[in-house]
Amino acid sequence: MQKAKIYTHKEEITGWVMSEKLDGIRGYWDGHQMLTRTGLPLNPPPWFVKNFPPFELDGELWSKRGDFEFIQSIVLDKKPGEGWEKIRYNVFEVPNEKGDFFLRLNKAKEWFEIHKNIYVRFIPQTQIQNTSDLDQFLNEIESMGGEGVIVKDPKKPYHTGRSAHVLKVKNFQDMEGIVIGLNKGKGKYGEMMGSLTLRLENGIVFKLGTGFTDQLRKTPPPLGTSVTFKYNGFTKTGIPKFASFLRVRENVRLKVK
To answer: Which end of the chain is more exposed for a tag (fewer CB within 10 A), N or C?
Structure first.
């Protein structure tokens, strides 16, 4: 699956395209079924994926800005409910097809022009004339409560994994960690969770103590849960600086040793 690197402001992005980074659940259509980004099957209603193509699609299952908890509760439910009517599949790539980005997208657009599905959208792509275009677009998206922007070199063929030709742009960085400990709070949080102990992909372990609602402190995510947090740089020992909880990610739990 294609993944974005972080924009460093050093890249030459004139002529690239930019689009809003939707804060939903990644949905990978493998030609037969919808999968999460980790390869687990999702359970959309049959009417939601009616007329989907026999080739692959990559996109975001999304409703509106600031609605992640609702999206997650609906999309990750093993028994699809009525909430799926508010979800749209926002296509941003056609994996493993030949040609440049627009040729790949056109294959999917042509398919859905014939095989109609009201739940499918294509994320608008805007060409970047200069870096000020990107700055203005990012400010607009964030002012409306959006998560950030994706920029992509449309001339490049499709690739899997991370690449310098697909970049995510935010005014903050984010990362995921696995919950390996629940720590009791102090003061007004004395009977609640005070912080989470997280283990990062590189093995770094640290405590995350801010950004939680009172409700989440009362019912914290179980051990093994993957959570996302935002941060701004690292300490000399590799600990994320100014880390603040954002959300629980996908219904995936790992065994904690």
So the answer is: C
> Can you give the pTM of this predicted structure?
0.77
- Give yes or no: residues 32 and 118 share one domain: yes
Q: Indicate the number of domains in the chain.
A: 3
180: left (phi over 0), alpha (psi -120 to 50) or beta: alpha
CATH code assigned at 138? 3.30.1490.70
Q: List the catalytic residues.
A: 21
Q: Are 19 and 49 in contact (CB under 8 A)?
A: no
Q: Which of 122, 151, 185 is the last residue of a domain?
A: 122
Q: Are residues 149 and 90 in the same domain?
A: no
What mean pLDDT value characterizes the chain? 92
Rounded to an integer, what distance in angstroms lies between the CA atom of residue 9 and that of residue 7?
6
Question: Same domain for 140 and 15?
Answer: yes
Tens digits of per-residue pLDDT, 40-55? Answer: 999 999 999 999 999 9
CA distance 173 to 210: 16
Name the residue among 52, 29, 58 with its Cα closest to residue 119: 52
Laid out side by side, the sheet with 244-253 consists of 205-208, 193-199, 173-184, 225-231, 244-253
- Residue 31 and residue 97 in one domain: yes
pLDDT in tens, 66-78: 888 899 889 998 8
Cβ neighbours of residue 20 closer than 8 Å, sequence gap 6 or more: 123, 124, 141, 146, 147, 148, 149, 150
Query: Which residue, 107, 122, 137, sits at the end of a domain?
Result: 122
Segment 173-208, tens digit of pLDDT = 889 999 999 999 998 888 999 999 999 999 999 999
